[in-house]
Amino acid sequence: MSDQLEIAAIARDDLGKGASRRLRRNADMIPAIIYGAGKDPQPLSIVRKDIEKCLETEAFFSQVIAVKIGGDVQKAILKDLQRHPAKDRVMHADFLRIDEKVALKVNIPIHFVNEESCRGVRLEGGIIEHQALEIEVLCLPSAIPEYLEVDMADIGLGDSVHLSDVTLPEGVESVALSYGEDHDEVIASVIQPRGLKSDEEEDEEAAEAPAADDVPSAQDEGEDEAGED
């Protein structure tokens, strides 16, 4: 895991949509809330530039965060983030308190490595298609991985990488796979570029096409018609 992430927040008493609008417009802050772990929800406000800076770090979306509220520090994870639909500006943040002894579900980013040297790309002319960029796992807060690595070096054209192919750290479980083998989803594959046909497909089409001798010419058709008359 990475070093402890931190963000400062201020307890907020002024609630409602109007209060949230004033907070964003006049104080350049955003409303937030922290809840869970058997405690009452607590409305917060966070300096906009502070949370936008934190969001530049990939780990902020999945790792345990120390939310500093005055002299109190509460450990939590970022549970939800609302953005403005047109301006991509952060509008609201939800933080879920954690219990160190209780496992939780969290989405972990996938880092695909060796894509440029992938056998199916370098030697066989394919391209890599990503079906997933993160994996939902279940684990204790202390066991949350920063990311999960998938090595694409030996993946050939037409091959796929499934959830079951990903090596998970000890104490970390795939949520999807816990439901059974039929949930073993594809997360990446090497495919033929669109518009290009494989040698096998071209051979099949050539075999199915009629030979030149088998195709009647216009002259042959005319002679046949004359013979019929």
Nutshell version of this structure?
With 229 residues, this protein is of the alpha+beta class. The protein has helices at residues 17-26, 48-54, 119-122, 199-208, 218-228; strands spanning 5-11, 29-36, 39-47, 65-69, 72-83, 90-97, 104-113, 127-130, 134-139, 148-151, 160-162, 173-174, 186-191.
Describe the structure.
Helix content is 18%, strand content 37%. The chain is elongated and about 75 Å long. It contains five helices and 13 strands. The protein is of the alpha+beta class and 229 residues long. It has a six-stranded mixed β-barrel. The protein has a four-stranded mixed β-sheet with strand order 10-7-9-12, with no helix packed on it.
Number of strands: 13
Strand content of the residues, in percent?
Answer: 35-45%
Provide the spatial order of strands within the biggest beta sheet: 1-3-2-6-5-4
Order of helices and strands: EHEEHEEEEHEEEEEEHH
Low-confidence stretches: 225-229
Shape: elongated
Instruction: Supply the helix-strand structural class.
Output: alpha+beta
What does the secondary structure layout of this molecule look like, with pairings?
Elements: E1 5-11, H1 17-26, E2 29-36, E3 39-47, H2 48-54, E4 65-69, E5 72-83, E6 90-97, E7 104-113, H3 119-122, E8 127-130, E9 134-139, E10 148-151, E11 160-162, E12 173-174, E13 186-191, H4 199-208, H5 218-228
Parallel strand pairs: 1-4, 2-6, 7-10
Antiparallel strand pairs: 1-3, 2-3, 4-5, 5-6, 7-9, 8-13, 9-12, 11-13
